[in-house]
């Protein structure tokens, strides 16, 4: 029994689950299981935060019942209750797995996820798409998207056991990822974000039973499916009353998600165009000699350019995914399922679905053209801004070179003046030395003469003798050596 395996689902069940579902490609899916285990810490939450919403209709009841499961035991109990009472098996079941935001951990534990995947026999492709979620600082896998499908009308594939629960005996399974721009009113600094949605869907054309697993970083898709989906649309009172009606309802659910993937791009691109004008419009008219460009402007321009490139890539990816989804229903389901009464009776629904999807694709292609034009314009503005910065840098370098030259000239003149002052100082020093030598030469004689003058004019009278000799009157002979000695000291 599938539930016997489910009741033992643990962290080690990932490789077992993946390998058991696809025995003919164990090597590829074994690597995928290893990656899931490596990402488990950032991908899954603790059981205290778990919150998985089941929204389903069972048996003959037309209305849908919503139930929020918050534990692994509650998940097992819910799945077992349906297994014990096959009459209550859901004709349509939605499993909504959500998170606080697109870069936060999912509100589901690894055990709860494995129990859901094992019970519904979900294709391991789903795990590949699931890894774009989880806790991370930056949306490193925001550009990831794709489409996977498997169809088996009539006889089952020889590789797949017909005893597995949750897998359509005659029908198809598909999984895809779409992204869209969503406006955030709470974050004024970053009013727009790119968010992803992963969808898994299986449909049994014999019974009309369908299973949906929708993973989203918020409750937006769940709200739209509940409020606008054909499963509760009063205009379609026969929804899920027959396999053909269930098939038509599934197409409408795809349209709800497809509309979401294309509806906000016009306004997001308008926002990007406005940001471009605010950031780079002055580059067309401002005089680089008068306006001071900054490196911060170049950084804002580069950041805006990356956003445009990301939006362009995602829009192209959405076009490819929606085109593959449309082609799957028109070319594969529509053609291969012509012998299936459910598909045969739904040809008109398929045509309407295809027309709506083509409208969405054409609108996305128009947005792609806008983004391409914006990318070219922004690239040109960035080049002009970069050229203006380089011009200002060159002008600043020239100005600095001129100032350096003037400074060198001034220093040269100052050096010349200092040299002239040094020569003059040297000459004055020599003159002062000569004057000092002359003064010192005559200093002893001047002293003696001054002393003699005092004696001569009566201003000085020696005690020992009243009369001096002629030699003493005009100076003593032994004063000459003293004078010569003083000259030697000066030299």
Give a verbal description of the structure:
- Helix 10 runs antiparallel to helix 11 (295-336) and helix 10 (265-280) runs parallel beside helix 13.
- This protein is 57% helix and 12% strand.
- It has a seven-stranded mixed beta sheet with strand order 2-1-3-7-6-5-4, with helices on both faces.
- The model is unreliable at 1-11, 14-24 and 155-165 (pLDDT under 50).
- It is of the alpha+beta class and 491 residues long.
Q: Roughly how many Å is the radius of gyration?
A: 48 Å
Mean pLDDT: 81
Give the termini distance in whole angstroms: 123 Å
Largest sheet: 7 strands, mixed
Q: What percentage of residues falls in helices of 4 or more residues?
A: 55-70%
Beta content: 5-15%
Please write the string of helix (H) and strand (E) elements.
HHHHEEHEHHEEEEHHHHHHHH
The strand order across the widest sheet is: 2-1-3-7-6-5-4
Give me the count of strands.
Answer: 7
Structural class by SSE content: alpha+beta
> What are the low-pLDDT stretches, counting only 5+ consecutive residues below 50?
1-11, 14-24, 155-165
Q: Quick one: overall form?
A: elongated
Q: Count helical runs.
A: 15
